[in-house]
Design brief:
It is built from six helices and eleven strands. By secondary structure, it is of the alpha+beta class.
C-alpha cells in the first residue's frame, strides 16, 4: 500500500490486489466498505497529516487491471450536509423511454452511486422524472453521465417538490441504489 498526499485536500491510496481483496471493496454501497476505509484514513493521517475537518469527503474507488485499486479521497469544504437537510440543489431529469432510464440507473449504480446523496423516481406527464442530489462538487461526472440519457428539466427545490406531490411515485428514496442494484443482478445473470 502506498499513501500519497497530492494536495492538502486530496489523498491517494494505491492498493495491490491482495490488499484490495482483503478489504472487499467490490460492493461500494455497503456499510462494511465504509468501515474498511476508516483504518486507511487513520493511517493516512499519521503518515501524511491528511485530516479533513468539517469537510465532505468524496471517495472514488478506481479498479486497476492487476486486481488492485486506487482510492482517491477529496475533501470539499463549504458544503453542509446533515441527515434530512441538504444545501445541495436537486436536479430533475426527464427520460422519454424506460430503456434510457434503465441504462442511466444501471450506469449510475455501477460507477457513481457513491456520489448520489439522494434520489427519487416519479412518472409525470408521460415521462420518467429522476430527482437526484449529487455530491459532484468538483467535476460533476455523474450529472454529465445522466445527460447522455435524459434532459435536465431544472435544478430547483420547488420543481422537485411539485413533481413529488403531483407525479406518480415509483420510488421516493434511494432510487438509483435500489433499481440500479436490481438491474445489475439481472445483467449478471
Amino acid at each position: 500500500m502506498t499513501i500519497t498526499l497530492n494536495s492538502p485536500n486530496r489523498l491517494k491510496i494505491c492498493l495491490n490486489s491482495n490488499e484490495a481483496n482483503a478489504l472487499n471493496l467490490r460492493n461500494t454501497h455497503s456499510y462494511s466498505v465504509k468501515q474498511a476505509l476508516l483504518p486507511l484514513l487513520a493511517q493516512a493521517q499519521l503518515e501524511t497529516g491528511f485530516y479533513p475537518q468539517r469537510a465532505k469527503l468524496i471517495v472514488d474507488i478506481l479498479p486497476e487491471e492487476n486486481g488492485g485499486c486506487v482510492l482517491l479521497f477529496t475533501a470539499v469544504y463549504g458544503v453542509q450536509i446533515t441527515p434530512g437537510k441538504s444545501s445541495i440543489e436537486p436536479e430533475v431529469y426527464a427520460f422519454s423511454s424506460s430503456v434510457g432510464l434503465c441504462a442511466a440507473l444501471l450506469g449510475l449504480y455501477k460507477h457513481y452511486a457513491h456520489r448520489i446523496y439522494k434520489s427519487a423516481l416519479y412518472f409525470w406527464h408521460g415521462e420518467y422524472r429522476l430527482i437526484i442530489k449529487a455530491l459532484d462538487y468538483l467535476d460533476q461526472q455523474s450529472t454529465r453521465f445522466i445527460a447522455d440519457f435524459a434532459n435536465l428539466v431544472g435544478t430547483d427545490e420547488i420543481l422537485a417538490a411539485y413533481i413529488c406531490e403531483h407525479g406518480k411515485e415509483i420510488m421516493a428514496e434511494n432510487a438509483v441504489e435500489h433499481i440500479g442494484c436490481t438491474l445489475n443482478k439481472f445483467e449478471a445473470n
